[in-house]
User: Fold this.
Amino acid sequence: MKAFQFKAWQQPAELVDVPVPEPGPGEVLIRIGGAGVCHSDLHIMHHWTVEQLPQLADWQLPFTLGHENAGWIESGDTDEFEPGAPVVVAPGWNCNVCRACRLGNTNACYASREKRGHSGGLGRDGGFAEYMVAPIHCLVPLKDLEPWKAAALTDAGLSAYHAVKHCLPVLSPDMAAVVIGIGGLGHMAVQFLRELSGSTIIAVDQDEKALARASEMGADLCLMPDENTAAEILAATSGIGAMAILDFVGADATMALAAAAACKGGRIAIVGLGGGTFPLRFGALPYGCTVVTTMGGTTMELAEVVALAESGRVQPHIKKYRLDQAVDVYEKLKNNQITGRAVLVP
Assistant:
């Protein structure tokens, strides 16, 4: 079968021929219906090294990329799913037995990689292929949603949803939430905020088309980033600031903007892997404001995201491409030419 594989650090992936994988105990073979293209793959291929991130030392290269996956059960050791059943695959694979997993915090699994294994597309073969293997306990069933339409929900949807849920306890209809970066994740965050919070939604992006889409999806105010953006957010919130700010870029400038526009007692969630830093000191943030980094989400949250999508309450903006177009798609993504999410279909 064809697979888009990552073979060496700081080198682009290649489309190669590989054998169809065989599922082990507790695993199933999935016929891929669609796999989302994520910006973090660019970091894997072009930026990250073992020297920079020692935790990557046990990744066994080569492996097939693609960590946003959906398809149909082909075979495997399970009575839970019939052959042909449509499923999505949680992007962060977990042990399912440690304290965090038993509490439902599957994205914070305590087990070592040796015990829980790598995740598909992140150290182990993922979904940029005709077939992939995945643990049964990391699957969520689909009803009427086609797999290629559901694939992006597993990371672009899930990561945005998890960050929004972290901020929900402090949000109310009389407060504002800011979404910085209206890309593959940010456009989903706008929809989740619209459906779950009742708050005023402010979108910030340097792309006018992305802002137009944010407005269509429910953003109340859309701003281009410049030296006046923080002041504009403060003016729009009667000088109070935003109670929640979700940064899907994570660069120096966006983190500084979040700090300048936040409300006392607010929450800032940094999701983007932009490599930025923020000098934390007393007075750098409004009193009582908290900053967290988030990554992915839980398997239960993925089920909630799927339910929202299947009910039509949220809808990822997707463009479908063939698997053999992967190189061109990543070039488009690198040059900010992808609006929403690209999905590769074998």
Remarks:
- The longest helix spans residues 156-167.
- The chain has eleven helices and 18 strands.
- The first strand starts at residue 2 and ends at 6.
